[in-house]
Design brief:
single chain; 291 residues; Kinesin; 6-stranded mixed β-sheet; 7 helices; binds adenosine-5'-triphosphate; ATP binding; motor protein; Kinesin_motor_dom; microtubule motor activity
Length: 291
């Protein structure tokens, strides 16, 4: 086995050793200017437990505690959330393991804020790993889509025509004609991330002046081979990808004061999140997933 294959085998052993391959963390953001007069209903009482105590007087007597793999309170930085909640998952891509990190939550809860930081830190660590492994040849590719009002759009193209989803028996679901950029360096990736941010559909609601109105999926694919064996017929190439998913937030029309276009967007967002919830619930009962 070459160095890369050993890394991959070690990473797989680590994954196999864990009973759970899904990690769920909760981040409670600080109250903002609009909410600062209120007291928070949520309190992080340990690194894994968050407690909900309703401010409605009759219900305040019955707090409920929820336990997750990790809970981050309002004073935790995005760096800490990344280091303790996402780094291991993001970096498994360099060892040939596919992974996804996604943020799910109510509108204005801090999903985009958190995912932007996590993506940035992951990119820095992935390039750092590449620099420390000159014995391997790496090729990085990047693609980005948003799902807006149930239509899929390429965020690396100025063409707004919706793209078709195709079911490939080997590759699974793919997006037809999606741009995939081969990255020159991390500055190139930063430029592309900036382009995605600029292209993404956002709009103002009563709860968030820059609310994401679409689901965004950024995909980084990494191919790597041992340089020594390249072209000698002995080399094997590791190919894997990491997805950074920033979902649009669930919302109540009464709270976001949505009407017209915003209301239509909100109903698409809520419906797709409801479907995602159903899929996750069903997965609890499925032992094998066939592709
Ligand atoms: N941990 C945090 N610390 C400080 N400010 C935060 C934090 N999390 C979020 N914010 C701020 O709160 C506001 C809402 O955050 P953000 O846009 O990330 O929410 P969201 O969940 O993505 O919302 P939506 O679903 O509407 O797109 C932003 O102004 C953001 O800068």
């Amino acid at each position: 086995m070459g160095a890369g294959e050993e890394d991959a085998a070690a990473a797989w052993e680590k994954v196999e050793a864990k009973e759970e391959r899904i990690m769920v963390s909760v981040r409670v953001r600080p109250l903002n200017g609009r909410e600062s007069g209120d007291s928070s209903d949520w309190e992080c009482i340990s690194p894994t437990t968050v407690m909900f105590r309703s401010t409605v007087p009759d219900r305040a007597m019955f707090p409920t505690a929820y336990t997750y793999d990790r809970v981050f309170g309002p004073n935790c930085s995005t760096r800490q959330v990344y280091e303790e909640g996402a780094k291991e998952v993001a970096l498994s891509v360099v060892s040939g393991i596919n992974s996804s990190i996604f943020a799910y939550g109510q509108t204005s809860s801090g999903k985009t804020y958190t995912m932007t930081g996590i993506t940035e830190y992951s990119v820095m660590d992935i390039y750092d790993y590449i620099e420390k492994h000159p014995e391997r040849e790496f090729m990085l590719k990047f693609s980005a889509i948003e799902i807006y009002n149930e239509a899929v759009r390429d965020l690396l193209s100025h063409d707004t025509t919706p793209l078709r989803l195709l079911d490939d028996p080997e590759k699974g679901t793919t997006v037809e004609k999606l741009t995939e950029e081969t990255l020159r360096d991390k500055d190139h990736l930063r430029d592309l991330l900036g382009m995605c941010e600029a292209q993404r559909e956002i709009g103002e609601t009563a709860l968030n002046e820059a609310s994401s109105r679409s689901h965004q999926i950024l995909r980084l694919t990494i191919e790597s081979s041992v340089k020594q064996y390249l072209g000698r017929g002995k080399s094997s190439t590791l190919v894997s990808c990491v997805n950074f998913v920033d979902l649009a937030g669930s919302e109540r029309a009464s709270q976001t004061a949505s009407a017209g276009m915003r209301l239509k967007e909100g109903s698409h967002i809520n419906r797709s999140l409801l479907t995602l919830g159903k899929v996750v619930r069903q997965l609890r009962f499925v032992w094998f997933v066939f592709f």
